[in-house]
């Protein structure tokens, strides 16, 4: 990593697990970022702004490459938030039944020494099977996806809810597009291999 420390601006255990796949030492820090969407902000604009703000919000004591990421789930042009409770999770799943929803994941890599920021947005589409209330309720009771946009965990039993998946990098669906991150790191002179 030359003279840089790699920093993940996230406390998400899912993003940490994903970044560990690259086998590069990193530290995590909690970003200081207001995640409230702006009026009339499109999903791609929102995740671009939030990923960038998360990366820039971290105060660092040495040269760092800071990774910021943010994700939203969109159905029929509307951002779907985290359900937070059982009834809302079941309702979200039933609303997605037999439909396609798209995840937009913003990824920013900030170089604290050069002050260069690279930002991309990666998309991933999930095509749901037809779900009954009983199936949705059983799933929610088993995995309790109350803090997951879209009310599922694709890395677990949530995979059984899908008809098919569409995108370049399955890691994007979990919240950190590793294929694109490798390219951003290479642009900063950091080779994963």
From TrEMBL:
Protein name in the entry: 7-methyl-GTP pyrophosphatase
UniProt-annotated catalytic positions: 70
Site feature: Important for substrate specificity: 14, 71, 155
HAMAP family: Maf
Cellular component, GO, one term: cytoplasm
Record GO biological process: nucleotide metabolic process
Organism: Vibrio cincinnatiensis DSM 19608
Transmembrane segments: none
Localization per Swiss-Prot or TrEMBL: Cytoplasm
């Amino acid at each position: 990593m030359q003279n840089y420390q790699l920093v993940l601006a996230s406390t998400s255990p899912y993003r940490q697990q994903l970044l560990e796949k690259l086998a590069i030492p990193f530290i995590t820090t909690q970003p200081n970022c207001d995640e409230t969407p702006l009026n009339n902000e499109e999903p791609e604009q929102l995740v671009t702004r939030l990923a960038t703000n998360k990366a820039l919000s971290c105060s660092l004591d040495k040269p760092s490459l800071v990774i910021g990421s943010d994700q939203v789930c969109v159905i029929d042009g509307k951002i779907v938030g985290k359900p937070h409770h059982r009834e809302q999770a079941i309702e979200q799943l039933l609303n997605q039944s037999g439909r396609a929803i798209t995840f937009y994941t913003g990824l920013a890599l900030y170089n604290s020494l050069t002050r260069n920021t690279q930002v991309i947005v990666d998309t991933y589409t999930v095509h749901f099977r037809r779900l009954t209330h009983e199936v949705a309720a059983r799933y929610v009771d088993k995995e309790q996806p109350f803090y997951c946009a879209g009310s599922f965990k694709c890395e677990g039993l949530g995979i059984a809810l899908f008809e098919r998946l569409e995108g370049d990098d399955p890691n994007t669906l979990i919240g950190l597009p590793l294929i694109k991150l490798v390219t951003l790191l290479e642009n900063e002179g950091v080779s994963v291999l």
